[in-house]
Design brief:
Length: 306
Amino acid sequence: SKLTNLGHLEMTWRSRMHFHPLLVRILHKSRLRYYGKPEKKMDMPYQAYFEVADGSGMMSMVLWNSLCPEWYHSMKVGTVLLLDKYAIKTSYPFKTHPTPGDSQMKRFATIEISLNVRDPPTEISIIPEEMVKPEWGLPEVKYRFITRSELDDLPNNHSCDVIGLVTFVGRAERARKREHSEDFWLYRWAHAIDGTSDQPFILELFATSQPDVFERIHPMTYLVCTQMRVIQGLTENPSRTVYLTTSNESQIFITGWHKGQPYTKDAKVKNFIQWTKSQSEADQIKKTVIGGYYPFPRPPDSFLKY
């Protein structure tokens, strides 16, 4: 009976120190960020962003330090949380924002919910899905799935979700985060088909905070990638060079991880599953490749074209 909502928080947060509990659903989840530095002695310098929503709209929520190893893996997209003794801060202006699946949803961008071990010590409860009541008015998780046949017409940097059958996965490669830096991004290339085009999705998959999934992407697995960004037209022939890359909020799922995920109700996901049932596994296995070096975008055929 004493719950508040995100819209009310935004209007009243400056005038109060203590806030009523919040009931929200997680719609997006960022990768875990490590911000430790040798000169700063912090036990667990971790941080993760989530986008949470209730019936009034959507707001960012930040999980800090030792709460990250304790809660990060339990807080999945779709999870319902009851939060108490949280703090409200002005939003960090340079944070990335995921593209909401529901374009009509109101976004409260001026403030964010801060979850800490102390000052104040936040109380977090996960509400099991079977106990969630419709009268709470929590929004469902919505997606923006596209098929391969739709991809070539999408603009650069467009945000989308994809599902496909993996036909190629390359070895893990490293790229420097900055020139002369000792920090690296880990990534691998993959191809996935969905039956709507002769061409596969070309996917540049950076290691998210899901090492167990990233290391087990194999040919013939059903791969779901959310919050991917379209990269268009690197050469004169754009249709050959369109690919998708992960964003800060991307989540990756493979066969064995799909059960219970909110996207299993999506129409395009159901269509894909129907298509896979019509395929011969033996024929598809013959077309699959694993490992090796994958130069992309491919260099021209001759030096003259270079």
